[in-house]
Amino acid sequence: MNYRKDTDVYKLYLVTDSGMLPEGTTLFSQVEKAVKAGITLVQIREKDSDTKDFIAEALEVKKLCNEYKVPLIINDRIDVALAIGADGVHVGQDDMPIPMVRDLVGPDMIIGWSVGKTSEVQQLAEWGPDYVDYIGIGTLFPTETKKNSKKVPMGPQGAIRILDALQEYKADWCRTVGIGGLHAPNIPRVLYQCTSSDGKRALDGISLVSDIMASPTADVATKRLLEFLDDTTYSYLGDLNLQSNDEPTSHDFHDVLAQVAKNRPLVQHVTNKVHQNFGANVTLALGASPIMSEIESEVGELCRIPNAALLLNTGSVAPLSMLKTAVAAYNEVTRPIVFDPVGYSATTTRRDLNDALLSYGQYACIKGNSGEILGLAGLNSSSMKGVDATSTASDAELIQSATRIVAYRYKTIAVCTGETDYICDGTVGGRRFISTGSGIGPDDLDMYYVQDGHIPMMGDITASGCSLGSTIASLVGGLGPDGSVFNAVVAAIVLYKSAGRLAADGCDGSGSFHVRLIDNLYKLTRVNNPDTWSAVLKKIDDSE
Ligand SMILES: Nc1ncnc2c1ncn2[C@@H]1O[C@H](COP(=O)(O)OP(=O)(O)O)[C@@H](O)[C@H]1O
Ligand SMILES: Cc1ncsc1CCOP(=O)(O)O
Ligand SMILES: [Mg+2]
């Protein structure tokens, strides 16, 4: 059977490894369970087997695959593939050159190629559709399967670059699978994030090893993974509802504050020295409980405290290893992270560190001033002076585009602060999509803004943006299981700006403004009557 033209065989791609089999199982028995449970493609990858054993095993699996009409791919060993009549081969960058492989296997076999660089995409495009049929994009995350691999994990952002290159070089025939360190907890996020910037390309599938090969119930594991792949919308925060409903109202804001009072969320701050004290007092004023901690060994405990949330503020950076540990811990327990990439494009050090974190995890909300958001969107690198936005970053259209791009690229709720705060929730009509591939692009995303006139003093104090981060993390962290993250983010922004307005009126200096801002957050929270808040939320209706 010639599977070369089948595009849906890549959906759930099992790669074997006989080095991790549970007691009482064999490679064949694990593959058999997976195939019967719906695996769509099998690759035998046995780097250490003798040729004789490899061929015997491959023939047995080939028979099974023929029965269930599942293509069988052989890794690297072209000779074995030819000997058993496999449906295809997969080669890495250091294996036999692709043109030679195609000459040997002929026109009917699938050829897969491991790809990690855009130059490799350019090469396959130059060869054209008669050579490479699919690429394995990775290594996405650190993996046990390829021990001492020299490859640095590329993360979802690396995969997006490869998907963009496929678009750029018009390799439309080439299918894609994500590879490397993929497991149930991170697969939905990878599917959700890995979409080309134009929205037209997504991963065609996921390849994995240990989630099935090391599973004592390989069939159950396979079925659960297929559920992820068949889903169309996605909320990575466990029970928290990431779908933004209709435009939030003051009633929703009241509910959000009531949940903070009830649940008293723990807000772990990994933040800069300037913000520490002010952020802790803002958090307390809101009725939440701050802990300012960069202790790597306690992150695993803190994230499991009920209603925990993490504010990750990279103003004066903690070691990257600690930051990554924190991100992985909160992602693992699906608790929200608010990310504030302070001074993002001010220096390469800050840019590199924040890019590494953005490639590594998933964030409930990414907030920043216009300099930071424009930088994240790649629209204007000269828009920062230290940690403050410069005046060049004041074009509303540009800021809205940047906010939409950040929401789209990182699949998050993006907030760009300033006199007007712009909020893009990454949804289209309130829904989020896994691996769209349907042409939905940043410009299609819903967009909101919050205003309360010009409050100069809000820009005259330091850590005002950082403390908006504390406010967002407190309100998101307080949500109950059916809470809307979007409503909490918007409530935080409306509350914070309204408190700023009250603090500024009649205030004679930036010193007392700090204190008055905390006072008014304290008062507004306890009164909890959003109808009296002065700041106004509006939705941008693009038809206007
Ligand atoms: N001129 C302004 N008028 C009203 N609100 C402002 C103004 N400048 C900043 N803000 C508010 O102050 C907070 C900090 O925003 P910003 O100064 O942009 O952040 P950062 O301190 O990170 O640069 C946000 O809540 C924002 O809405
Ligand atoms: C001054 C300074 N330097 C490093 S972080 C920081 C505080 C920035 O706070 P904000 O982003 O709220 O202005
Ligand atoms: Mg800031």
What labels would you give this structure?
single chain; 544 residues; alpha/beta; TIM Barrel; UDP-N-acetylmuramoyl-L-alanine:D-glutamate ligase; nine-stranded mixed beta sheet; eight-stranded parallel β-barrel; 19 strands; 41% helix; elongated; binds adenosine-5'-diphosphate; binds 4-methyl-5-hydroxyethylthiazole phosphate; binds magnesium ion
Walk me through the structure.
The chain is α/β, with parallel strands linked by helices and 544 residues long. It folds into two domains: 7-230, TIM Barrel (Alpha-Beta Barrel); 250-539, Ribokinase (UDP-N-acetylmuramoyl-L-alanine:D-glutamate ligase, 3-Layer(aba) Sandwich), CATH 3.40.1190.20. It is built from 20 helices and 19 strands. The strands form three sheets. It has a nine-stranded mixed sheet, sandwiched between helices. Helix 1 (27-37) runs parallel beside helix 2 (51-68). It is elongated and about 85 Å long. Bound molecules: adenosine-5'-diphosphate, 4-methyl-5-hydroxyethylthiazole phosphate (TZP) and magnesium ion. Adenosine-5'-diphosphate is lined by residues 369, 388-389, 417-419, 421, 454-456, 458-459, 464-465, 468, 496-497, 500.
